[in-house]
């Protein structure tokens, strides 16, 4: 989207910058805030919310903003933005309701809190950019229904893997090829990592140990690939995708690890591998025209049938402003689901679990997530990894067993549970989850 830069320059020249509010003040929020404040014309960071207000103030100061207004009320937040002063608040819903905010960026990774935030933003006709793959993978399709209802856009972000993959996928399709594999590359895969094992790495980079754990144990990549699957209709060959398959060869030859006939039969898959150097995401595609196959061979793409296209990096917060501009200026959403979920993320026991235990959140000590086709997820009533926190175990669960709804008692009153039940009813015509959630309520 190279045209974004000139469109933003026009907004800057016209004195109408996009007014951005960020929810959360963690590591990625800090990088994004600094990028907007220092490098993006036509865009203004107006507010940051965080449960620890000091952290929100610290992020503003990291970006060079002083005299931060602490806003406890709607009027104080609005007055600060109107006066061109940075505003920090503990209450993200104030930003969702403010007429002086154009777009919210959710960086929290929380499914339950994110559900409340997104719906409140929609009610006030506000677009939302998700740096929150967990909510998108868990209840993204039904949230898109609400977005359309209110005439707003809910979008994934440029820079993070789903956005990078979808940009590449769209580009490859635009060349006339048929994508068959959309892949992600990891440097590490160990489902038993936890915040203790990841503490040193997290501290070195100033990150949250739980979030770092979700990268290492496969939960994050499962959520990311589910988003891509739902946006393309691609599936997984089996639960867990390639389960840490190592590939350290030439990325131009990576198509050799796939069976083209299987890919054609499925229609296309999402996947990941561990280890391919200097590569972050890849799309493998075939071309139906023998004449164009000749040209692709001339252009050093090989003889096919799978041609390899790849991007060697993802720059996350550096590119998120592109998504903000695409949504606000061009009404273009990254990775919107085609309809209901095609792939979901189920919860798997990270260790032997005991009846009566209360499950902790993803990226912690008790569960990890695996991508699985929605038909299997529904048929076996798997518990989604995005909703494990607070569930009470009814029985013992063996290490590496998939958790089901029958294994747990749900916490009462969660909006995210109701939305996921609504998602199943809306897209699949299934009411079994609605019945379970009503019992928990």
Describe the fold and architecture:
With 441 residues, this protein is an alpha/beta fold. α6 (111-123) runs parallel beside α7 and α6 (111-123) packs across α16 (415-428). Helix content is 41%, strand content 16%. The strands form 4 sheets. It has a 7-stranded parallel sheet with strand order 3-4-2-1-5-6-7, sandwiched between helices. The protein contains 17 helices and 15 strands. The chain has a domain at 3-160 and 317-330: 3-Layer(aba) Sandwich (Rossmann fold). α7 (133-150) links the parallel β6 and β7 (154-155). The longest helix has 18 residues, at 133-150. The N and C termini lie far apart (45 Å).
Features:
41% helix, 441 residues, globular, Rossmann fold, alpha/beta, 16% strand, 17 helices
What's a concise summary of this model?
The chain has 441 residues and is α/β, with parallel strands linked by helices. It contains 17 helices and 15 strands.
Low-confidence segments, ≥5 residues, pLDDT <50? Answer: none
Query: What does the radius of gyration come to?
Result: 22 Å
Count the strands? 15
How far apart are the termini? 45 Å
CATH class of the domain at 3-160 and 317-330: Alpha Beta
Strand content: 15-25%
- Biggest sheet character: 7 strands, parallel
What is the CATH superfamily classification of the domain at 3-160 and 317-330?
NAD(P)-binding Rossmann-like Domain
Helix content: 40-55%
Instruction: Give the averaged pLDDT, no decimals.
Output: 95
Oligomer: single chain
CATH architecture of the domain at 3-160 and 317-330: 3-Layer(aba) Sandwich
According to CATH, the fold-level topology of the domain at 3-160 and 317-330 is Rossmann fold
The global form is: globular
